Structure formats: C-alpha cells, structure tokens
Amino acid sequence: MRDVIARALVWVLRLLLPARGKHTAEHPAPVETPTPQQAVNPWSKPWTSPTREQARELFRLQAETTMELGIVQRERRAAVLLADIGIDYPYTYDGAPFPAAAFVQPQTRTAMNTTGRRTA
C-alpha cells in the first residue's frame, strides 16, 4: 500500500514541478549582471537646503507656536487643578460647545466654627 501511495505522489509531483537535468526541454537564458554605477559625490551637487534667512523664519514661527502651546497647556493644567478642589475655571477654546458665561462663578464661602456659628 505504501508503494502505491509513494508512486502516486511522485507522479503528481512530476506533473506539477518542472523536470531537471539532461531531459529539460529548454534552458533559461543567461541573465546579464548590471554594471555597478559609480557613486556620486554629494558635494558636487548644488546646495538645495533652505537659506539662512528661510531657516531663521522657520525657527521663529516654530518658537511662536511652541510658546502658544505652552501657555495653553499651563491654562489647561490650572483648570484641572482648580477642578480638583471644586472650583470652576472659565476655560474656553475656539469651537467650544459652551461659552465662558456658562461657568458658575465661585462664591465666597463662610467658615463655621466648632459651635455652629458662622464667621465671616
């Protein structure tokens, strides 16, 4: 039984895989190897980077944006810290779903002493 299975597998493989050795019908054409090109010296090309003035303008704009983000970030952190102690901070931004007037303004609290009387 094993011999029949082995012969069937060999027959299927001969159909699927190409023949090797002397009995092949065609030989593949030789592939030409590409000739290596000489490396180009990077210093032979003209300067394509931004000029000094363009770079200064780029860094100036980046510094302004970074400073604005720092201010916004500090304001957000202050709003979180105040919210943690229960104080509403009127923090708004462009496109906010609520205006600054929607926030409840903090009212002065009166402290109570241990006897239950209010002190101002």
Provide a descriptive summary of the structure in words.
By secondary structure, the chain is mainly alpha-helical. It is about 40% helix and about 5% strand. Strands 1-2 form a two-stranded antiparallel sheet. A hairpin with a 5-residue loop joins β1 and β2 (about 120). The longest helix has about 35 residues, at about 50-85. The mean pLDDT is about 75.
Strand content: under 5%
The N- to C-terminal Cα distance equals 105 Å
Number of helices: 2
- Describe the sheet with the most strands: 2 strands, antiparallel
Assign an overall shape. elongated
Share of helical residues: 40-55%
Biggest sheet strand line-up: 1-2
Oligomer: single chain
Rounded to the nearest angstrom, the radius of gyration is 40 Å
Kindly state the number of beta strands.
2
Question: Which ranges are low-confidence, i.e. pLDDT below 50, for 5 or more consecutive residues?
Answer: none
Elements, N to C (H/E): HHEE
Average pLDDT taken over every residue: 77
Structural class: mainly alpha
